[in-house]
Amino acid sequence: MDVYFSDARASVKKPEEWYQPHLSPVKKLEKLIEESGVLDFVDKGDIIAVKTHFGDRGTTRTLRSVFIRKIVEAVKDRGGKPFVTETTGLGMTKDRSTAVGRLLIAEENGYTSQTVGAPIIIADGMLGLDCVTVDINGVHLKKVHVAKAIAECDGVVCATHFKLHMQAGIGGSIKNVGVGCVAKPSKFDIHCPEKPVINEKCDGCGRCTEICPINAISCHVAGDTGNRTIYTIDRNKCIGCTGCYEVCRKRAIDVEWLTGREISERIAECALGVVRVVGKDNFGFINFAMDITPHCDCRPYSDMPAFPDIGIFASRDIVAVDKACIDALLKARPNPGALVDDFWEWTEPMAQIEHAEKLGIGISNYTLEIVE
Ligand code: SF4
Ligand code: SF4
């Protein structure tokens, strides 16, 4: 599988030759899109999702809107009808957990229909519960809940800010699809193996019942004299929004949070679900290995980049494009003082690649084509 690459460096050697617009990464992106054929799947009239990450309030190193605009223009040039999209975050109380909050944060961070050149639509609806469910029969997950607007569009261009990730090793295209294109119930399944349980610390305040969007929490009278109330979660009904966990002040709701390799494998399985629904041939992947922070854009801040800017990678293969980025990072020297010591050891950055390849959604073996 081919992965096309454009270097982020300008490398102007003579000071008098400083005015060279073609050295801009935005211009390079234009050329990369042309030469790679990454958008060749777009047909006239197709509704195309341009999936990116808007960051949280305070995140400062997300993908610049000018790159997204360039991709939007390229989709339009091919006759497609693009919209720029993102999904809500896990939980119910943070701004990023609803479509309204997500859009407000997007605006603050510089993503508006004016800056990106297309409508912005939150793909999983107001509360992050609008989805199409698909069976996958994976090692960890049996079903994936694909964000409805993603499931209903004709194709997806992943405009991915490639960075490190403190739990999943890397945040590349596999994560942009596996986490970013699914609704809240699948985001829960990525992070947690079991639905929440209410423990004995519960004091019966009832806050959790008010936030639960599907009335999965009920109150029973208990005790020999009927003088006690017990709150329980119907785990068959619960969709794992974690709203109750967020509002409980007594730490009376137990949620088991996964760590390590299993999270990465669950992300890959969610990506499989999205690929099944949209169709493997209806994707293009563009990874921007620039501002490579040591953590994901869902943090409400951006640490200093862990590596110098590398460049832009484009491919029709979700696994190859991420593998090419990892290989480039392994050859690069981390920035002095960056948070990468032992990082590769404990986060297993290859886990997503290996599991995604096993699931058949892409190939890690690739040829790197340099676009000058
Ligand atoms: S919010 Fe916590 S303490 Fe209050 S009823 Fe629910 S589980 Fe019990
Ligand atoms: S019981 Fe389930 S659906 Fe209801 S608030 Fe808690 S996590 Fe969300």
Automatic annotation (TrEMBL):
One Pfam family here: Fer4_7
Q: What are the GO MF terms of this UniProt record?
A: oxidoreductase activity
Native species of this protein?
Answer: Archaeoglobus veneficus (strain DSM 11195 / SNP6)
UniProt name for this protein: 4Fe-4S ferredoxin iron-sulfur binding domain-containing protein
Domain 4Fe-4S ferredoxin-type, by residue range, is 194-222, 229-258
